[in-house]
Design goal:
three-stranded parallel β-sheet; binds guanine; 16% strand; Rossmann fold
């Protein structure tokens, strides 16, 4: 029987509705949660993501703005923008869109963002908090979104073999941090695979929960998947296609057609994990705003 397909759009809509309620509760106390996205350069993919982040903020009754800087921006100039945002009490969340141009060291920029405004969850303080299971930290939006999808579909992850393909700081490593924690929607035995892993398929075929985040279109094929596995595809690869209106199509890291014949539950691309990333970003921003006024919570 083909796999059930996870409806990421529906789950994301629900999360965004919860965020809007929390934002409205804060607004009653004169706090409008504010997110500033900083985009350096004109990477076409980043421009699309950034526009949707701003729109999503406004739809949730939050303040959302984008600072667009030229590709020639120096590291010092970008750090000065971050400093200004750190000091602005109306801005609760700061997101510097990655990747950055070559002249800028992304880790230096990430470390400059105040941890309490780091709604991306990339600052070492938040990375550490997530790793030790401290719920005060901001979990990175995409891995957290994956976990919320698993929860929404009632996946009992306790004791599962979770194999993550990809070791990026944005997805693979924090995904492992979340899934290895004790507690609901985690409690997995986690393996991280990457480009140097020997016999990759021997690992992926063991997985009860397979999470693909390697950035290579249709890399994971059905024959690499254990029958009945839950397959989560984090990939968003643009593949040229002259027949598509945009001139390209979005493809995941998983070969969907072959994988869905083997898996029990699978995310599509688009319409799967991608929608969750922005929803969780809004949620982190509302949390950041709530943390500036601890007495105020949704429904208060
Ligand atoms: N580039 C791709 N994904 C992300 C993300 O989640 N956050 C930031 N800041 N940049 C990205």
């Amino acid at each position: 029987m083909p796999a059930e397909i996870i409806d990421g759009a529906a789950v994301a809509t629900k999360v965004r509705a919860e965020v809007a309620i929390a934002a409205a509760a804060l607004a009653k106390h004169g706090i409008v949660p504010g997110l500033t996205v900083v985009l350096v350069g004109e990477d076409p993919g980043s421009m699309v993501y950034v526009a949707s982040k701003e729109k999503a903020c406004l739809e949730a009754g939050m303040h959302g703005e984008t600072i667009r800087l030229p590709a020639s921006t120096s590291q010092a100039e970008l750090l000065a923008v971050v400093d200004r945002l750190n000091a602005d009490p109306a801005i609760h969340g700061i997101l510097v869109q990655m990747p950055l141009p070559k002249q800028i060291d992304s880790q230096t920029v990430i470390r400059r963002i105040a941890p309490q405004k780091d709604v991306d969850g990339f600052h070492p303080v938040n990375v550490g908090k997530v790793l030790i299971g401290d719920r005060d930290g901001f979990a990175p939006c995409t891995p957290w979104g994956v976990q919320v999808l698993l929860e929404a579909y009632g996946v009992k992850t306790t004791g599962m073999e979770c194999v993550i393909v990809g070791r990026s700081n944005i997805v693979g490593k924090p995904m492992a941090s979340l899934m290895v924690q004790p507690g609901a929607h985690a409690d997995c035995t986690v393996t991280i695979c990457h480009s140097r892993t020997r016999d990759l398929a021997s690992h992926t075929k063991r997985a009860d929960l397979l999470i693909a985040a390697i950035g290579r279109a249709e890399f994971v094929t059905g024959d690499m998947i254990r029958p009945g596995a839950v397959v989560i595809d984090v990939g968003m690869n643009r593949v040229d296609d002259a027949t598509a209106k945009a001139g390209y199509r979005l493809k995941g890291d998983v070969h969907f057609e072959s994988a869905k014949q083997v898996a029990s539950l699978i995310t599509p691309v688009p319409g799967g994990v991608g929608r969750m990333t922005i929803a969780m970003l809004l949620k982190n921003t509302v949390r950041a705003a709530e943390m500036t006024a601890p007495a105020i919570r949704a429904g208060a």
